[in-house]
Amino acid sequence: LGDRVYWQDSGFYLTCVKECTALYPPGFILYLLLCKAWTLALGFVDFTRAVHLFSAACAAGAAGVMGLAARDFLRARTGVLKVHEGEPGALEEACGAGVGVLTASGFTFWFAGTYAKGYALLYLVLALLLWRMIVAAERRRPRDFTIVAVLIGLAWQAHPSATGAGLALLLFVGAHAKLLGWKGLAWRTGAAAAAALGPALLLPWLTSGDGGMGFGEPRSVGEIARYVAGATFTHRPGAFGFQADRWGTAAMYFWEEFLGVGVVLLIAGAIRLWRANPRALGGAALWAVPFTALPTIFILEGQQDHWYVAAWLPLQLLAGLGLHDLARRAGTRAVPVAAGVAALGLAWAALANRGDLDQRSYDLAEIYGRVLLEPLAKDALVIATSDETSAIGHYLGSVRGARPDVIVVRRGYLGAGWYDQRLLKRDPRLKAPDYAAMHARFPRATVAAARTAAFAAANVSPERPVYFERPPPFEMLPEGYDVVPAGPLLKLVPRGLGAVDSRYWAFPIEPEAVAARVRRPRGQSIEEGPGWIRSKPQAYERRLLLALVRAKFLLADWHYRRGEMGPARELFEAVLRADPETGALEEVVLPLGLASARVGAHERAEAVLKHLLNLPGAGPDSRIQAWATLGDLAARAGRNEEARECWRRALATPGQMDPGLRATLNRRLGR
What we know:
The protein has 29 helices and seven strands. It is mostly helical. The protein has a five-stranded mixed sheet, with helices on both faces. The radius of gyration is 30 Å and the shape is globular.
């Protein structure tokens, strides 16, 4: 465990727990209230560490309960779950403990227990649900089914992904419908609904504060329903779809969760259950298969690995059955064999996983926030686009008390009345933007660009500088203003005062040091277009690396546009060294090639420009410039026929060629 913020949206969780305000839809109210109570009880512990400890406690509890579930599954002797004959003994206890150990050592399960998110609580509730389903099926007592009903509701309240287990839960209910009767089913269904939705009644209270964090202020029944349903995410065009490589990612995550020992035990247990009780195997499949498919087709979900752990919890029971069958073959040494196999699985997981999970000295996410916030001018406004900047920025301000004068503005919420009002309450010096006027002036602009421009125009001043992660188009900037690079951000400054300040590039860490600490690609990089969304795995550390590289790129581009080719070339080369993937970006490769040509590095210029021409995504305008410059370089070297061929290719490339350049090339070709 560490005592610092982590990536993704853990900063949102830490801030919302601190301020006791509802998290993003559906609110995660159960997590919020339990974790808030936990941190109050542990007031003598650093707040961030206490929140992480809550996840650790939930994960430890979930692993222990999975052990109980595996033990009672192996002890079951009824027709529904029966897999063995005879009286149970110490071996079931040992195998249950082994399942707890193997569950806890899965990569993502282990990860969930080390930082501020609600997944460990979800695993605890789902483990309790599985265990009590086994107990209820075996004992067949009405009160056990009541506990199951409440846990079904609490599972959804812990995380809406629990709906992935819906088919298995319906099968369980159907198998016991006659025992419970229609009245028993009806009121237990009501109890499940109350457990799931009852906490939503607190949403108006939890979202009514003046804290810097907030994801909405639902007041009416309709607004609350939309918030609880998470419509902001699930109703977005392209949120669901088929993306073949996500299935490959799921397979990789499966291996990392079970590794060799778990996979062998799981296969052995599945074979044993198929022979002994195929109905129970079908129930496990109805939980695992749809639950696995749900995050795989939910393209917008950036942490589907955590959803998979919830989907695969019943498979841990099959691994326990496989462990039981393996140990039974050892006769009187069955218990030591079971313990030894579990220890082998734990040792394998520790060797394979610990290096990528140790959070004790992990500080890269916090460094990301420091790179953005520490150099900013006094009373700065930062219009943030990414979740990382918003989450970590709010965390540093609210929890750590860093740069309390800086206001991080979330671009996606500008124009939402409740959010604008909250900003104005936080700082009375802020002015309400005229969004309608900006939309009227630029009807073809995107909503996000228009609202960003309107907010900046209303609030920029010499005393209140504005910074962008993604600025609006140049023509939408306030009159008399321009943007200049300020590290990974762009600063709005009066035109004519466009000098850059070197302090924005005084990084506490260099890109090369970040690259050396990159861990497994467990995050997701999301790309969006009109009606489509695509994701690909991304190491969280690359987000800091990309911020540092972006800072160098912005400075290089600034020098390049001013005709300062020497500094521009050096910085573009630094960008390529820090992140070789930028070698596929024409906005890096083209100016590097042209700047190299201008400063006399002709061999380097030729190599870079030829590389540009091989890029499948290079646009026609870039190709025109590349061919024309290659022709000039060839002519300078005395390769006249090669030069003429390059100029002909430049003229033949479709695109918008400068008339002066076209005339020059035609003259050189004697046309």
